[in-house]
Amino acid sequence: MTNHWIDIVNSDCIFIIGSNPAENHPVSFKWVMRAKDRGGKVIHVDPRFTRTSQHADVFARLRSGSDIAFFGGMINYILKNNLIFKDYVVNYTNAAFIVSDKYEFKDGLFSGFNAEKRSYDKSSWAFVKDDKGIPKKDPTLANPRCVYQIMKKHYERYDLKTVSKISGTPEKDLVEVYKTYSATGKPEKTGTMLYAMGQTQHTVGVQNIRAMSIIQLLLGNIGVAGGGINALRGEANVQGSTDQGLLFHILPGYLPTPTAAMPTLADYNEKNTPKSADPMSANWWGNRPKYVASLLKAMYPKQDLDTAYSWLPKLEPGKDQSWLSLFDVMLNGAFKGFFAWGQNPAASTANSNKTREAMSKLDWMVTVNIFDTETGSFWRGPGMDPKKIKTEVFFLPCSVSIEKEGSISNSGRWMQWRYPGPKPLGETKPDGDIIYELFEKIRDLYKKEGGAFPDPILNLNWDVATNHIFDPHKVAKLINGYFLTEKTLKVGDADKTFKPGDPVPAFAMLQADGSTCSGNWIYCASYTDKNMAARRDKTQTEMQAKIGLFPGWTWAWPVNRRILYNRASVDMNGKPYQPEKAVIAWQDGKWVGDVPDGPWPPMADKEKGRYPFIMTTEGFGQIFGPGRNDGPLPEFYEPLECPVNEHPFSKQLHNPTALIFAGEAEKRAVCDPRYPFICSTYRVTEHWQTGVMTRWTPWLLEAEPQMFVEMSPELAEMRGIKGGEKVIVENMRGQLWAKAIISERIKPFTVMGETIHQVGIPWHYGWVYPKDGGESANLLTPSVGDPNTGIPETKAFMVNVRKA
Amino acid sequence: MKLKRRDFLKLTGGAMAVTAFGGLGFDLTPVHAKAEAAKLAGTKQTTSVCCYCSVGCGLIVSTDGGSSRAVNVEGDPDHPINEGSLCPKGASIYQLCENDRRLQKVLYRAPYSDKWEEKSWDFALDRIAKLTKETRDATFEVKDAKGQVVNRTGGIASVGSAAMDNEECWIYQAMLRAMGLTYIEHQARI
């Protein structure tokens, strides 16, 4: 989230798409309802009418997978009717930038496409720079090669009629949504966009979010109270676990994982540190070398930086190692060992039959969880013969959250401390202790026996326990960072000398020379003289109270900033665009309100001022995004499984760069009469994820006991299905039974002149428990993914539904 | 006399020792309050944050001083996001914790076996450490095919976990990277 949960209350218009907060983030919905009480409008766009739709002022039905058509139509509507927030667009976004004359877009393809590699050479998407190296701009937005004009031309094709034809959304509903939301383009109005996996789990997932971001930038809705682009994350600490770098491509704090093409730290810094010739661009990632050095020192405090860097494992350049690829490699037998820690991939991975088979190729597997799972017990699952499965499996029982201490970070980036209540049940242990003890044993073996390249293992900073018990405070202090050698630095106007062991007060003081450590620079300032995440102070200034800002309650990264890019909420002189809900304001030579995005004065100060989008190299919000793998502007493509074999925007039926796996194309249904219905997965209020933490809870299981499929009365009639009957949902990848729920909440769409049906299934069940609960929805979802992130396309795929 | 819930809390509780009541709504007569309070007699209150979605609702956990088991879990009325309320999942955390179907012992499945066996932590961690080392030693690459230094193992992969605390996530990634793993993924990807 650029903003945070309470901030939703400040919104004049709440646009909810690809999410259902009333049912899936129920407590957050209180802030939506309070915004509504204050006169705010609620828009819900979804294939299905849900409890969120029930409270919406405007509800529009959209066929799963047609989001970019829908958003493209909205961009076109905003531009055609000149509803943009012009000052914001000109001053704060890259709309005025001039794009290379080599850039072109033709029939669904951007310039630089290599059909054989299924990827783009992005060099033609660059901005034109002046002789100083600063991007050339046309503030009048009239230059035909400026981003604004290129965008305008790109989306002219997305007229109401065409969008309606492919999305199945009636034209009048499109207009109502577009008109209602575009009203937030007025300077004093703000609108927020809330989304979840309904937007991301697509082969165009990243471009769906890009399209939303473009609209928010055009309407001046980023950086303001009641605005922003807000992912409603699905897990209590999925923000934090991402921040801590538990992904193949990033180290803690969003530092790219080194590749073999960066043999030294100098190479790494050279390749990963952006440079800006524009003195008004803060170019915050220009500080990257300080953060990498501090991370290396957190892991290997006694080594020099070059040695510590050389010990980090290096990726093969350009090789995808994301989730779907990982299981594809596993299926090919490349891994001997596998840790499935606090996760249930046998039910949560797209194409779960493939995942389950892949696990049988392992020599050993360690899984850690609270209850038995489809993963831990894969070897005794449906269709498995334990006598033929070699995998040695360890199931380690862990404590639940209320039994342990530590911090988690919510979707609004609040790092919140949890205290232990009950003691760990039985022989269960907190994950921290399991990790600590396991690595102690591994290290002892290397000490005793030696082995392959033992240095990184023997020298890893493992001072993470007190009296052999995992100590979250020690680790939180390490994540914050401290000085390793004495250092005198300017703090404000005065010099201050820090001694070894002193906490680093904020990331601006982290050093590239190895004199500081910090396990994660974005968390620097979270544990200084005290544990900031444990704070419970609700004191507010009058200005903060107006927008529900609680700066003394827990702590938010970065540096307790609650609304990101807040320098875009004020004009060039630092005066808030929305004085009644100001986030920051420049008063008497200083900023008041939220923690500003940097201390610099407003942009009107041509010497000391800085542009507001400090994390981008140029300092501007990116309407044109030249870094993405599938194009600088979102373009409509059908999901890889779809009910049509053509669409009106181009001859490119699918995203030409989507992540796919060899030999699986024949298992994809495109306009296949055997699998005529679109299917989408979703959640119910009473269950969570694959159900590991809810299926075993009697209260919750009683409320939602088993797998169901939701369908329209029209589809039920066509297939002769009655409500409550067991039916079969199937495709080329798998089959499962479900109870039929026949409901007006789902209606057929008219797409390209044809009637198209959609069904929906929850993904909370699995064969382990309960006995008659049904199987995982992911048996049916395809292993295809977005070309930028690799997220699987589980929100739009094709199935058949028939009587059991 | 009718007492508002928060007034009652103020009368009966100190900062961390607020007594709290599950499922009774907001208007409590002292009689009801006393009956409900019996369940919480001798309990200690701690604050936590819900483990399900990412809203981050505050919790008050009441733990029995004798058994060290949870007696009640409810929304933290002081928490500015949830202001005391919880959804059905959050309101059932008590049952997630106090649940006799939780796995309480290490389970082990030998190759080609058709059953779980209960084992000790020492057995499991010793064996996992040994397998990890054997696998790493057998598959460790100092250089790739092009002769570039890579210092990695392609023989072990890891997924997980958004269910862990920040501090646990950090040491987990440190351990995995120190061993040379590059196939490191978790919930955020899917």
Produce the secondary structure layout.
The complex is a heterodimer of chains A (804) and B (190).
Chain A: E1 13-17, H1 21-24, H2 29-37, E2 41-46, H3 51-54, E3 58-61, H4 67-80, H5 86-92, E4 105-106, E5 109-110, E6 113-114, E7 119-120, H6 147-156, H7 160-167, H8 171-182, E8 191-195, H9 197-200, H10 205-218, E9 229-231, H11 238-243, E10 250-251, E11 255-256, H12 265-272, H13 288-299, H14 305-311, H15 323-331, E12 337-341, H16 345-348, H17 352-359, E13 364-369, E14 392-397, E15 406-409, E16 414-418, H18 431-449, H19 455-459, E17 465-466, E18 469-470, H20 472-480, E19 482-483, E20 487-491, E21 494-498, E22 516-517, H21 542-546, E23 555-556, E24 584-587, E25 590-593, E26 677-682, H22 698-703, E27 708-711, H23 713-719, E28 726-730, E29 735-742, E30 749-751, E31 754-756, E32 758-762, E33 797-803
Parallel strand pairs in A: 1-2, 1-8, 2-3, 8-9, 12-13, 13-14, 26-32, 27-29
Antiparallel strand pairs in A: 4-5, 6-7, 10-11, 15-16, 16-23, 17-18, 19-22, 20-21, 24-25, 26-33, 28-29, 28-33, 30-31
Chain B: E1 3-4, H1 5-12, E2 27-28, H2 30-40, E3 43-49, E4 58-64, E5 70-75, H3 88-91, H4 93-97, E6 106-109, E7 117-119, H5 121-139, E8 140-143, E9 149-159, H6 166-179, E10 181-185
Parallel strand pairs in B: 9-10
Antiparallel strand pairs in B: 1-2, 3-4, 4-5, 6-7, 8-9
